[in-house]
Structure formats: structure tokens, C-alpha cells
Amino acid sequence: MTARLRLAWLAAVLLAAHSLAAQQLQKITINFPTRSGASWPMWIAKEGGYYQKYGYDANVVFGAHPAGIAMIVSGEAAMTNYSMEQALQASSKDGSLVMVGSSLNKGLFALMVAKGINSAKELKDKRFAVSQIGDAPYNYAIALLGKFGLSSRDVQWVPVGTDATGRAAALMGGRAEATLLTAPQYFKVEEAGYKSVANMADYNDVFASTVYLFKKSSVAANPKLAENLIKAHAEAIKRFYDDKAFAVKAYLAYDKQDPADVERIYDLQVKSAALERIPYVLAGAVKSILNQADSEAATRIRDFDFHTVIDNSIVDRLVKEGYFEKLFGPGVKADEDRKAKAAFR
What we know:
The protein contains 16 helices and 10 strands. It has helices at about 5-25, 40-45, 50-55, 65-75, 85-95, 135-145, 165-170, 185-190, 215-220, 225-240, 245-255, 260-270, 285-295, 315-320, 325-330, 335-340, and strands at about 25-30, 55-60, 80-85, 95-100, 110-115, 125-130, 155-160, 180, 195-200, 210-215. A 5-stranded mixed beta sheet has the order 2-1-3-10-4, with helices on both faces. A 5-stranded mixed beta sheet has the order 7-6-8-5-9, sandwiched between helices.
């Protein structure tokens, strides 16, 4: 066999092997509903090859609420990493959904105030910009204001109908004296001379949780689906904590921000240990949302039995099998025990 023929034969073998591997990957779509640090596990799982490791050719796509819920219900997406508030609301209306894990319980939401205001307590009777009444940041704002003795009735809510950019514009344009902003939006507002008087990340009992949301029928038809995606995200979270440069690179692939801002977001999330190594859905997170719902007559979730749509059994089994200890090392055992006790049961 001539050298040219040998090269051609080798190329054909490699091409066939690549094609076979590609054929064996299952194509799935995964939704991320926010361009923020909450989506880091999905971005790293995609860019780091962790979905591929578990047999999936994953198309990771953005779609703000309610697009993610619609994608799950229709079967277009296999999973979304959704705000727990919105997932609980949707699940109370549609029992076909199930939450099997949670990668985040703390959010980098800063309470930004107008110039001249020095404390959250000074917000009584002031205007507070929100995207819409009843959405997740609105509920976060109520929980955070409660830390300063204020209720939802103590401020004037100003719905702006858009995202954090619109809320920031309302504050800086004088249409509101306060708003809740995520990083990196609040970095820019700080640079303009506005003050942060509180941050949700500093309160362990103020939750900004996300959940891995699936359709029950999809999990039943493919029993390994939820387990494999939990593992892919756990390994992505380990990569997050181990490899800052790669984490920043993965973020920038989906959200074109100033790299310095992304590095700052990374440092803040690492400092608060925001991404969960042991991804239980926590009872405290569910309780906090139900407590907020009790004060809002329009909600329908307070009387719903969420045991029918929250399933921690997969994480329980992975803990029992030693998966997380093998991944993160024996030092994670204390976190396992603590989270297992705090899990929703």
C-alpha cells in the first residue's frame, strides 16, 4: 500500500468513526431563560463537552419566560433551568412538569437606590421599578425589603414592562427611587454614582433559586435523561470552580459583556459559593416562595401540593452512590449532609 493510499484509508477510518460517534449522540434542546450567572452550568456543560460525554448533542438556546415553559410543555426542549417562582407557578397550573434539581439558590441582585438615599429603610413611600408585578424579581424585592421592616404596601411599584435594562433606565431617569438589578447591570449603575444598599447574595434566607425543569413524560420515556443532565451540570459546576479562565470564556460565548465585568461576576459567585455542588431542591426555597405567595391574593400556588412536582430522588440516589464525593472529593460530604437535611421532602 502506497503512502497516499494509507493516508486515504486512515482518513476514511477516522471519518467513519466520527460519523458513528455523531450518530450515537441524541439531539436535545436545552433552554436557558436568562443571560446571567444562573446559566453558567448550561454554558460550561455545552462548551466543555459534558453534554456530549453523556451522549447528547445539545442545542443550548435562549428564551425568556414564558418561552422556556412552552418549550418544555410542547416537547421542543428536554430541560430548562428556570426561576423557581415561575416553575412553581407553571407547575401549579400544569401537573405534567417536574423539578429534579437546583443549581442556584443565591442571586447577585443589588438593591440600587437614587442619589441621596442611604438606606433601604428610607424607601418607605418611594417608587420601586419592577419589570412586572408578580414576576421573580418582584418577589425577590419583597423578600429583601422585608429584611428592613418594609412590606409590599410600603413602596409604590412602577412596572416598566422590560428587563433589568429598563429597570435601570427607570432609576437613572428619575421615574423610580429604587430597583433590583442583576450583575453586570448594577455595575454600570454604580459607576454612574448610584448606591447599592443591599445585595441578596448576603442573605442565606432570601432565595433566588433556579430549578432543573422537565416534563414528566420525557423523564418517564428516558429514565437516564434527568440523571445524565444533573451529572453534566455537576461536572460543569466543578469546572466553574476549578477553571476561571474557561468559565469566563464560556460566559462570553453566550453573553457579549465586558470580560472584566464577567470576571467580577465570577469572583462574586465564587465568594458566595452560589453554584450548588449538591443540587437538591431546598425546602427553605420553596417555603420562602409560598410565604410570598400568601401575601399575594392573585397567586394560586399556596394550596398546591408540590410533592407531586418536586422530585429529589435522583439527587438522593447519586449521593448514596457516592457520585458527588467522587467528583468533588471527600470534603463535600459535610455539604451533602447539610443539603440532604434541608431538601424538600
